[in-house]
# Entry
Amino acid sequence: MTTYTVGVDVGGTKVAAALLDESGDVVRRSRAATESGTYSGMVAGIVAAVREVRDGLDVAGVGLAIAGNVAADGSHVLFSPHLPLAGEPLARDLKDALGIPVLVENDANAAAWAEHEGGAGRGSTEMLFVALGTGLGAGLVLRNELYRGAQGFAGEAGHLTVVIDGRACPCGSRGCWERYASGTALVAHYVERGGDPEVGGPGITRAAAAGDPLSVAALADVGEWLGRGLASLVAILDPGVIVVGGGVSEAGDLLLEPARRRMAGSVTGVDIRPLPPVVPAALGNEAGVVGAAMLAREYGQ
Ligand SMILES: [Zn+2]
# Structure
């Protein structure tokens, strides 16, 4: 009998579930997005989404991919910027309702694991994953294992200070990396260069692909800042490969070439060390769901 797993993307306004078979392929998706404004409403939405894709099949574990700080044991969320979660026993409450082991995972960590297992990071024992979406998230695979840190806070690279007294960040600090390298930052660079703020990140990416110089320059700005930050992380981690995901990565080399150039110009010892390749993610926006489901098979509780 095939044993399936379920991955759930828990966002601020929607809950979407996917059923994966043993080889990690998505074979079914929940159709409806669900409101998740309160904790009980969110739990009910997750339960309904999981039941919809499960549909009586034997499921080994449920993995949740959530933007926020997740406890190192995968039992609950300590803080989430967009969700009503602050320490509630989420894994236990869901297991009580579903009767299946549940794992809570940070969304960038989950996506990193999926890219390592079946995407652009396959075959590398030391992988750095960076996702450029609304903010900047990162996940680390070290010695072939997802690295969560002592408290589960590892990989919060979006709030590395890259500019002293730089742009204000919602986290309360200034000059955070994600203020310069993210989808939000792409629009900021575009506007700084005289672009219309109404165009938005995907519109800028589309215009850049069509050759619009302003859009190409704004993407190159993000790439430059991406490369600067990556150089610092390379100095600490010495990864074998850097996988770049998130919506902005769909710009491909318009983003990654400036990043590679800047990284090569900023890493210390570049004349004596081979630099890790900087490659686009392979699994798209379902990587978090897939990775969470894969991890739940092993670590669900
Ligand atoms: Zn910040």
